[in-house]
Amino acid sequence: MRLSWVIYPLISFIIAACLCVLAAGVSVRFIEEASKDAINQSFKEAGLTWAHAEADGLQVFVIGDAIDDAERFQAISVAGSVVDAARLVDQTVLLDNDDGYSPNFSLEILKNLSTVSVIGLMPTTSDRAGFLKELAKAVGSDKQVSDLITVAAYPSPVNLEPALRLALEAVEQTEIAKIAISAGSVSVETIANSLDDKRKLQTSLGRSTPKGVTLFLKISVPRPVISPFVFRAIKLEEGFRLEACSALDAEVQGQILKSIMAYAFEGKQSCQIGLGMPDVHWPKAIQNALKALDSLAAGSLTITDTEIKLVADAATPQKEFDLVIDNLNTVLPDVYTIQGVLPKPKVVCGRGQAEFIATLSPEGLAQFRGPIKTTVNEEVFQSLAKARFGKDAVYTVLSLDENLPTDWSIYVMAGVEALSLLKQGIVTITLDEVEVRGRTEHETAKADITNQLIEKLPQDYDFRVKVEYAPPRKIEVYVPSAQECLAQINGLLSERKINFEPGSDRVDLEGHELLDDLADVFKTCGEIPLEIAGHTDSQGREEMNQKLSQSRAQAVLVELQRRRILTSSFVAKGYGESQPIAPNDTEDGRETNRRIEFNLIHDQTNLQPDDLAKSKSQPKEAADEQN
C-alpha cells in the first residue's frame, strides 16, 4: 500500500518530463523554421538572391557569396531586423574577383507591333525589377513584356546603368526595333516611315545619349510608292528649271542627274526616290525628251509614267514643232506615247485677261482675289479654302464673271490645293497657265504640287512651279542654368522633405511624390554636376550613421535614375551626423538634421575616386534602427 503511493507519483513525474521535453523540441523546431522562412523572405524582398538562412536551434546562420562588404553588411542587417542580432552567425563569403573575371553583362530587346521581349544577363546589383517596370511603361499597356533576364553576382560594369536608360528611350521612340545593350554601348536597329522621321529619331536619341555611352544607329527608311512617276522641266529664255523628278533608286537618280547636267538648269537638282518606275528605260526616255525640249526656243516637258507631253511656245513654227515630235518618236521605246501641244493665245473678248491671285503669309493667313464664274462655284471655293487654311485664316475678295470658261473653277481649286502645300507663297491663275511660287518646309512638296496640277488641270493647260525648299528652323529650347535649377529644387525642398521608412533607406510615399516633382525639374535642366548629400542625427553609432546617410543618398540617386533622369554627373555622398543644422537634443532638431540636400559641384577635381564609383553603383545598406 505504501509502495503504490511512491510508484504512481514517480510515473506521473516521468510522463510529465517526457511531455515537456517533447514540447520543447517542437517549439524549438517551430522557432527554427519560422525564423529561417522569415529571413529568407526578407532576403527575397531586398533583392539579396545570393543569400539564404539556415537555423540550428536558436542560432541562425547567414550563408552565401557576397560581392563586397557592402552586400555582406546588408544581408546581416536585413536578418538582424527579423531576429535578435545575438542569434545570428555570419557565414557569408566574399567572392574573390582578384583575377579580374567578370561575365559579359548585356541585354537584347526585340520590339514589334504586338510583343516585346528582353533577354540577357544583368548583375544582381542592378535594379532588374525597376528596369522591367520602366520597360513596360515605355512599350505601353497594350504590349506584354517577355522577361528572359538572368542575373549574376558580380559587380556592375561601368556605364551599364546609363546604357539601360538610353535603351529605354529608344524603346519608347520606336515601333519596331532590335536594341542591343552592353556596358557603355547601345545599338539600335529600326525602321522609320520617312527621312524626316529618321532625322528626328537621330536627333532625339543623340541628345539623350549620356556621357560614357556610345550610340550606334541603323535606321532604314522604306521607299515610298510614287504614283504616278513624274518628270517635269521648263525651258525659259533664262534657262531650264526642274519642277519634278522621280527615280527608283540612287543609281537611277544618278543617271537622270547626269542627263540634267548637260543643260543650264538653275539651282541644285534632286529626284524623289521611290517605288513605281513604269519602265526600265525611264532614265533614257528623260534624256531623249530633254534633247527635244532643248531644240525648242521655249516650252515645257512633262512625263507621267509612260505618257510624254511636250508643250512648245506659241511662237514656235508648226513645221519645226512637228519635226521635233517626229524625231522624239523615233528614239523612244514603243511603250511611251507622245502628245505635242502648240498652244494659241487665249483672249476673253472685251474683258482682257482674267486673273486670280492667291497668297499665303508665313503666319498662315490666306488671301484670295479674283473672279469666280457662279455663286455655286464661290460656295464650293469658300468651303475648300476654309478646310485647307482654317476658318479664321481666310480672307476673300471675289467677283462674279459668267463669261469665264467652264473649266475656270477647276483651275482655281487646283491653285488652292497647291497653295496649301506651301509655307509661304503666291499662286497666279490666268486663262493660259497656273504659276506657283513660294517656300516650303517639306522636301517633296514641289513634286507633290506638280503631280496635283498634272492630275487636276486639262492636258492643254500649262503651269509653272517655282518652289524653294527651306528646312524648318530649329527651335532653341531654353535650358536653365545650374544655379537656376538648384533654386527650383531648393524651392520644392523648402516646403517638403524626402523622408525614409524608419531605420532603412526606403523612401516613403510622400518622398516618392516629391521625387516625381523633382524629376520634372531635372528633365528641364540638362546635365549639371550635382552632389546628393545624405545627413542623419546623432542617435546611434557614428559608423552606422555614416553608412545610413550614404545608403539614403544612394537611394535618392537610384530613384532619380528610375525616373529616367540623366545622372552621369551626379554623386551620392553620405555625411552621417557630421554636419547638423539644428541641436540634436530635441526631437524637432533631430528631425531637421535627418535630411537630403542637393549641392552643385563647382570643382569635380576635388571629388575622390570612390565618390565617383559610388555614384555608378546601387548598394542598399541597412542602417541603425534608431534613425
Explain this structure to me?
By secondary structure, the protein is an alpha/beta fold. The chain folds into five domains: 2-94, 2-Layer Sandwich (GMP Synthetase, Chain A, domain 3); 106-220, hypothetical protein tt1634 (3-Layer(aba) Sandwich); 230-341, hypothetical protein tt1634, CATH 3.40.1520; 355-469, hypothetical protein tt1634 (3-Layer(aba) Sandwich), CATH 3.40.1520.20; 482-616, 2-Layer Sandwich (60s Ribosomal Protein L30, Chain: A), CATH 3.30.1330. Helices cover 38% and strands 25% of the residues. The chain contains 16 helices and 25 strands. The strands form six sheets. It has a six-stranded mixed β-sheet, with helices on one face. It has a six-stranded mixed β-sheet with strand order 19-18-17-20-21-22, covered by helices on one side. Strands 11-10-14-15-16 form a five-stranded mixed β-sheet. Strand 7 and strand 8 (185-191) form a beta hairpin. The radius of gyration is 39 Å and the shape is elongated.
Summary tags:
38% helix, alpha/beta, elongated, disordered C terminus, 25 strands, hypothetical protein tt1634, GMP Synthetase, Chain A, domain 3, 627 residues, 5 domains, single chain
